[in-house]
UniProtKB/TrEMBL annotation:
One of its GO terms (cellular component) is cytoplasm. It holds the Pfam family ADH_N. Belongs to the zinc-containing alcohol dehydrogenase family. Residues 30-139 form the Alcohol dehydrogenase-like N-terminal domain. Its cofactor is Zn(2+). Keywords: Metal-binding, NAD, Oxidoreductase, Zinc. The keyword Transmembrane helix does not apply. Its EC number is 1.1.1.1. It comes from Nocardia flavorosea. InterPro entries: ADH-like_N, ADH_phosphonate_catab-assoc, ADH_Zn_CS, GroES-like_sf, NAD(P)-bd_dom_sf. This is alcohol dehydrogenase. It is an enzyme of class 1 (oxidoreductase).
């Protein structure tokens, strides 16, 4: 019997004791809400940090914030119709607070986050590791063209959109020398996006398999020397310090990988002043960046080697097998609920 008829759905509920797959009541969407059947979810590194204890999170909860799916029910005033194939943002914003009005909706004073909410709260079906997810008002959704494969579309809601925000912060890339530190999903995506914009891209990562994948997206292995722009997705203080030391006159360093506590980085203020350097950070993204992410993936789904980035999916009952770092050379595990 179909899950909508049974009014139940299946979800992987994570807690400190592990993950259990169980039946969850299927909600009726309220005003502005969408009920989505999840077609594919990819496993972001932040979820691996949660499971390993490196990142605090509500427990129990349904993890998973990178996914693609189809709308099966829509509440009054929702911005998508039943049947639409969509991706969605990590954050749900109020749209009214001072931060939202300043354009920082990802840092909304009342922000709630997909895949980061307590299962025992008022939004239990909040993560992508489930057959269905409820998207509240305030979550940005973007329609995905049919030709874009699920494995290409799913990371849009975190990795790809974050990269779009990072590139916006970096400024004009055409003809610029760009160093990308970290060849995970974000770094490799950034390689493809920077190369598409006419940059000369260098990749730095301690894992040769990841560097090889980045080369396929348009990078050259880093051989040192000055650069105009450096983008750090590694979160390594050593990598950040090394990148900063290579920024040429008027250059920019954008930090996006430093999302867990780590070592501090010393810098010479005089060098920043005399070099007209810009150092900035990006965490999450704004609705426009999710739109740009889907546009980028729609242009490149059949021209860049995305097939090598995401592993073949496992079923929900096998989720334990993918809540660990994927094999080298693969950037994302995936789940087909």
């Amino acid at each position: 019997m179909d899950t909508l008829t049974r009014r139940l759905t299946r979800a992987a509920v994570w807690s400190a004791d592990g993950v259990r797959v169980c039946d969850v009541e299927l909600p009726t969407p309220g005003p502005g809400e969408l009920l989505v059947r999840v077609d594919l979810a990819t496993v972001c590194g932040s979820d691996l940090h949660t499971v390993s204890g490196r990142r605090p999170a509500p427990s129990p909860s349904i993890l998973g914030h990178e996914a693609v799916g189809r709308v099966v029910a829509a509440g009054p005033g929702a911005d998508q119709e039943v049947g639409g194939r969509i991706v969605w943002s990590v954050t749900a914003a109020c749209g009214r607070c001072a931060r939202c009005k300043r354009g920082f909706t990802a840092k909304c004073e009342q922000v709630r986050k997909v895949g980061h909410e307590a299962f025992t709260g008022d939004w239990p079906l909040s993560g992508g590791y489930a057959e269905h997810i409820l998207l509240p008002a305030g979550v940005t959704t973007v329609t995905v063209p049919q030709p874009v494969p699920d494995a290409v579309a799913a990371p849009a809601g975190c990795a790809t959109a974050t990269v779009m925000a990072v590139l916006e912060a970096a400024g004009d890339l055409a003809g610029r020398r760009v160093l990308i530190c970290g060849a995970g999903m974000l770094g490799v995506t950034a390689v493809g996006a920077c190369a598409e914009r006419g940059a000369h891209v260098l990749i730095s990562d301690p894992h040769p398999e990841r560097c090889d994948l980045a080369v396929g997206f348009g990078a050259r292995p880093d051989t040192g020397g000055p650069v105009d722009i450096a983008l750090d997705f590694s979160g390594s203080a050593t990598a950040v310090a090394a990148a900063l030391s290579r920024i040429d006159l008027g250059g920019t360093l954008v930090l996006a990988g430093s999302v867990t506590p780590g070592s501090t980085v010393a810098f010479d203020p005089e060098a920043v002043v005399r070099g007209w350097l810009t150092i900035t950070g990006v965490h999450n993204y704004e609705p426009r960046h999710l739109v740009h992410a889907v546009e980028f993936l729609s242009r490149t789904y059949d021209t860049l080697p995305w097939h090598g980035a995401v592993a073949a999916p496992v079923g929900l009952d096998a989720i334990d097998t993918v809540l660990a770092p994927p094999p080298r050379g693969v950037l994302r595990a995936s789940i087909n609920p």
